[in-house]
């Protein structure tokens, strides 16, 4: 059907609906005469048609997570403003399937070294005192892919930030009564492979949330519907989605994720394991890799900074490849273990240059250069690209190369 | 009961005393219930390094060989090396310091209980997980450990012997025992 015809049919349909609606008014004149004005009666079609049960983005907006053949599920950080990741764009990964869980059938059990094991339904969990907090989640291999020289999402998009609502795990642990000798918890999800992970009891008691809400609505299936753990600052693999069971134990359980998949071997052959807190990191998101500056003149530089170890205290930006650094403004409120937006006014002179950002968190920990990180690992700078070893907790300063034609490339492509 | 455990918990994890007092008074009546012993038993599939959750049963590599050939070799290869779709289950000894690192059960995994737990939980992944009997999981674990030259072909793996198996790379993890110190300042590149 061509546009014109479709338009005419729609018009006919609208007028029919309208006629029926008007007839309804006539017939029910007595009851509706008090003019509640709560229904669509009398609304012009163009107005009535403006309403939808759930909004979709404008057809002009093309933001989406990365999809195969690229590594899928990365958040398009380069297109985002603010600090909250919309739920449909939150990065996602899964070790197994994407389970479809009926919340009415879902249960959480806590057992092990406790006085009184317990099971809760979703309705019961929602009756308990809750908290709402903003936290980022980040995969422990996030940013390592940037070493391949790609664009922003492909390099850094395995992090997102949301407002989570749920019960503090400490509330549930006080209900079951933790026994002497418990030092870790083992948490398990209800995916097909029952992904499980050990978490120190100290962190479980501190600020871990058993969350059912994400940005004001129920969690999305990709992010753990109906129930997930949010362990502020701990790498993604710890934040068990579709959580169904927590066991209080006296030692880490040495799951495959711990002894194999999520460990990383140093050049001396020794494996770093139980890497839990994500280190401080910042990334300029505009202008950034894959974008193009439309021309010389004013461009606000914006980016995101976060640390698994508290709040961001400082972000500095260099527009001359590290020769000079200027403090960026931090967009408040600056929250702990949350993305923090930074901004710096910048006027581009049209010449080739490199943009860098570096941050510092509340513990005074800073973001290293690639050279500093290489020194800490005891490897030459080209080791990162050659090793087949998984690279975890990679937080080297990201260089974005601005070319004279305004195109922007990933500086890591040139090492 | 609760107050007793809370008292020592406050010592262990350093809860503030006011939080302790509050927790003692705040019980949420009518919310949640006690699971039955069967429910706990059915859900509690995790096996830790002490092996205390390992179920009754036993198996040897000899018993595992035909099960492996029937249910695993398709994805992991007859010789555990050349499978289609599954990772190698042996090899890579001596590669941990090289750029061409190969991490396998033999060259890398620090705990034999992890092999049991993973096979029991996840293998074979198709058509559905959880189809192996405990006897089969013991036998398959023994088969893989034996093919990695970690145990002998006729060594019996059960709840007692499996946790005692010394994996070649157990000393290869730093720190030897995982630690978490909440407020520690960590240098660049550390964890």
For the structure shown, list the relevant keywords:
heterodimer; A: alpha+beta; Sulfite Oxidase, Chain A, domain 2; Immunoglobulin-like; 5-stranded antiparallel sheet; 10 helices; 23 strands; disordered N terminus; B: 191 residues; mainly alpha; Cytochrome Bc1 Complex, Chain D, domain 2; two-stranded antiparallel ribbon; 3 strands
Write the topology of this structure.
The complex is a heterodimer of chains A (415) and B (191).
Chain A: H1 3-27, H2 29-32, H3 45-48, E1 107-112, E2 118-121, H4 122-127, E3 131-138, H5 152-156, E4 159-168, H6 169-176, E5 184-189, E6 196-200, H7 201-206, E7 209-214, E8 217-218, E9 228-230, E10 243-249, H8 256-261, E11 264-265, E12 271-272, E13 281-286, E14 297-298, E15 301-306, E16 312-318, E17 326-327, E18 329-330, E19 340-344, E20 347-348, E21 353-361, H9 370-377, H10 383-386, E22 400-402, E23 408-410
Parallel strand pairs in A: 1-10
Antiparallel strand pairs in A: 1-2, 3-4, 4-7, 5-6, 5-10, 7-8, 7-9, 11-12, 13-15, 14-20, 15-19, 16-17, 16-21, 18-19, 21-22, 22-23
Chain B: H1 2-13, H2 17-25, H3 37-43, E1 58-59, H4 61-71, H5 73-76, H6 112-122, H7 134-147, E2 157-158, E3 173-174
Antiparallel strand pairs in B: 1-2
Helix pairs in contact in B: 1-2, 4-7, 6-7
Please provide a written account of the structure.
Chain A has 415 residues and is α+β, with helices and mostly antiparallel strands. Chain A folds into two domains: 83-150 and 157-262, Oxidoreductase, molybdopterin-binding domain (Sulfite Oxidase, Chain A, domain 2), CATH 3.90.420; 281-414, Immunoglobulin-like, CATH 2.60.40. Chain A has ten helices and 23 strands. Chain A has helices at 3-27, 29-32, 45-48, 122-127, 152-156, 169-176, 201-206, 256-261, 370-377, 383-386, and strands spanning 107-112, 118-121, 131-138, 159-168, 184-189, 196-200, 209-214, 217-218, 228-230, 243-249, 264-265, 271-272, 281-286, 297-298, 301-306, 312-318, 326-327, 329-330, 340-344, 347-348, 353-361, 400-402, 408-410. In chain A, the strands form six sheets. Chain A has a five-stranded mixed sheet. The radius of gyration of chain A is 26 Å and the shape is globular. By secondary structure, chain B is mainly alpha-helical. Chain B has a domain at 45-171: Cytochrome Bc1 Complex, Chain D, domain 2 (Orthogonal Bundle), CATH 1.10.760.10. In chain B, 36% of the residues lie in helices and 3% in strands. Chain B is built from seven helices and three strands; from the N terminus they run H-H-H-E-H-H-H-H-E-E. Chain B has a two-stranded antiparallel ribbon. In chain B, helix 4 packs across helix 7 and helix 6 (112-122) crosses helix 7 (134-147). The longest helix of chain B has 14 residues, at 134-147. The chains are: A alpha+beta (415), B mainly alpha (191). Chains A and B meet through strand 2, strand 6, helix 7, strand 10 and helix 8 of A and helix 1, helix 3, helix 6 and strand 3 of B.
